Batch of 2 targets.
Target 1
Amino acid sequence: MRPGKGQHVASGDGNYRWPHRHLLGLEDLSAQDVRFLLQTAVGLEDVSTRSIKKVPALRGRVVVNLFMEDSTRTRSSFSLAASRLSADVLDLSGSGSSVSKGETLRDTARNIEAMGVDVIVCRHAQSGAAMHLADVVSCSVVNAGDGQHEHPTQALLDLYTIAQHTGRDTFDLGGFTVAIVGDIQHSRVARSNIHGLLKLGAKVILVAPATLLPRGFADLGCELCHDLDSVLPRVDVVYMLRVQFERLTSQAFPSVREYVAAYGLTKRRLARARPETLVMHPGPVNRGIEIDAGVADGRQSMILAQVTNGLAVRMATLFLVCTSSASSP
Ligand code: CP
């Protein structure tokens, strides 16, 4: 059944039921899980194009956004996604809550849950925070970014965008090559994308200075490279990561100027890639550092498409964790 005509969402495999009460990362999902979630998002995409942008799929459910780190895209996207499914939404941040008085994450979450909550969407600076929450509450937990660990819905919306713009309706990315460029070491976006891309069959090349690219990433099945110019001609997607100045604890590169010279995506450098190569970035963008304004706003840029697709992917995520076989009494 199509969204808007009832409580159910049409998706790919008739015999499959989403088995996960939480979404904590992509590492532990199967390829079938990832494809099912993305197919569910396809069924929900058109809700956001209607004059009345709402379906009753989660009417009566309560979603709490618990964001202990700043966010523009993820927080607003989850809020809108929950509203479009007719759930009640509560937004809480660290600075405006009793966390600022010293209350622990555990106590905060358990007190919120005591008000009758179905899903807690959590962003936190600590890797493993979402997993910890899932251990101490009974409701569903969705990881909206935990430290350097994972940012699963970012990767899901990225996979969705790649498939949408390359006609891969079945979310099979076999034969595709994606370069992820920049601060791999500190990036939860990179980790989730690596897991997701490999599960869907893509080849992943990680491109960064050696100081930001631990050799252990090769064990995941990725190619490692330090030379962006040599990689660009053979990629279908170049995914630029933000330089996370707030997470760089030591001097990872000699100077910003030298980083830009070697890894900044300028129009001139992008000309080495094929004209149909997609340019992606999770945001927020450091214009003039990892990517030039002319590329970020250019014809090959998927940056705003990524944000748009975040809504359908987060609607699918909230719908599935709320209605999973694991959430049933
Ligand atoms: N991509 C991303 O997570 O952006 P925000 O930090 O604005 O949520």
Target 2
Amino acid sequence: MVIVMKPNTPQSEIHRLHEKLKTLGFDVNLSQGHNYTLLGLIGDTTQINESQLQANTYVDRVMRVQHAFKRASRHFHPQDTVIDIDGHKVGGGHLLMIAGPCAVESQEQILTIAKSVKGLGAQLLRGGAFKPRTSPYSFQGLEEEGLKVLLEAKRQTGMPIVTECVSSETVDLVANYADVLQIGARNMQNFALLKKVGQTKKTILLKRGLAATIEELLMAAEYIMSEGNTNVILCERGIRTYETYTRNTLDISAIPAIKELSHLPIICDPSHAAGKWEMVAPLAKAAIAAGADGLIVEVHHQPELAFSDGAQSLKPEKYGHLVSAVQKIAAIQNAYV
Ligand code: PEP
Ligand code: MN
């Protein structure tokens, strides 16, 4: 961290701050120019209160050299993290395919979809039992009954389960059934929930918030990791912009940016980005070409009857075409890395 003092700061004030920083345990590199004095801090500055420093009358600017996220940073962990979910790997060149309906609707619906997507190349089964809906009048999910339905599908297909956890109170319940706990876009900064899932041993699928920056997403991952759980998969699912033609705007640039900043796997959800099934395949292919480590795609055998997100759900046949296409794109991508 570098602290830039304002021009004409009295020497006594520079000395006072220098001494204070030393008592906090930092080595301080003092550099005095004609107009500006710089204080370079050496040591772990993650705990420093930047705003308090900035409040000092004589401080012009405070600049971080290191990112505020540490455990999620590639700086401290240069190799890609590879996460293994029941033998299915993601990260470090391993592509993970997650598919299933937006919501768990019935045992029959889940079994039909699970069996078809498994046959088409999906490794993990998704499905929401607790649904975070914009309207309180929309279908809220089957809750624990939905979790039981998912577990039965796992028993019959062997597919590990990915399902969303919407509150701290239900983490233990969801963790009893699921292999991967999904934190949805609307909960990305629910810090109590992040800490709670950070105390479990489950893999966490952390989706980017609707209006979250890349740094905020990585700080959310840091919350989970700082509790001891380092199995975090990040997910770009589109952000809110002024564009209304699509449901959200898929931020393709987030994929290479996150690859540079972090060692954590990053997958893409083209379904919630597009909001329209016709656009799901092109966005998914673009994400894989940009280096994404996998996809989470909404698939429904009868989208016109789906309780939620039917308009963005692929029919199984289309999902099958998408899987073969992205496998080829990923092979080319890996060859050119
Ligand atoms: C979902 O995956 O069903 C979902 C609600 O996604 P998001 O949190 O990205 O909106
Ligand atoms: Mn959905």
